[in-house]
Amino acid sequence: MTTDVIDRTAEPVTADGVSVTDRAARRIRKIMDKDPTAGALRVSVEGGGCSGFSYKFDLTASRADDDLVIEKDGATVLIDPTSLPFMAGSEIDFVDDLMGQSFQIRNPNATASCGCGTSFAV
Question: Can you tell me the distance from the alpha carbon of 29 to that of 40, in angstroms, rounded to the nearest whole number?
Answer without folding.
Answer: 9
